[in-house]
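Lecture 7 notes: from sequence to structure.

We start with a single chain of 203 residues. Read the sequence below before looking at the structure.
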Amino acid sequence: MKKSWITLAVLAIGAGTASAAAVVGQPAPAFTATDTAGKAVSLADFKGKHVVLEWVNPGCPYVQKHYNAANMQGTQKAATDQGVVWLTINSTAPEHGDYKSPQAMSTWMQGHKAAATATLMDPDGKVGRAYGARTTPHMYVVDPAGKLVYAGAIDSRATSNPADIPTATNHVKQALGELLAGKAVSQPTTRAYGCSIKYPSAA
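Now the structure, written as tokens:
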């Protein structure tokens, strides 16, 4: 149903909004998910590294904004070129029309020349719910000690218009730049915007 695309500017995580939701400043929830090639990938695999988590749904106009303009891929590459691990996560329920199979998701990422370290499938929504992820895109940064240090939007312009990208502040690039310079993240939470994540209704 397309009416769900109305969802904009949803709070990034807000303490107390979900009992299991991740909290900035606290340890990031541990998880293991299967990538599009069928390999199990755990957050613990990347202990000692900065990790970015990106929630994605290729059917979402806000995701399309950043991928069609190559903004998300550019942010991915800038991060991974500096040794940051980037995990793209799809929590769309299999029964939803936007669901892509692992192979289809892999093909979509390759077709857009994505630079993510891995693309993970979360069909039961457990990983997304553990983080309190609400929108696509929804971004999180975990530091080398395993602490969640950023949660929120990819940037500061909450629209689906690619023309707004050049004038936006890229919050993920800013957070990573500060972290890699040995500084604290100056804006650890922002308001995520995009399409609501299509979780399984019974999850």
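The radius of gyration is 15 Å. Keep this in mind for problem set 3.
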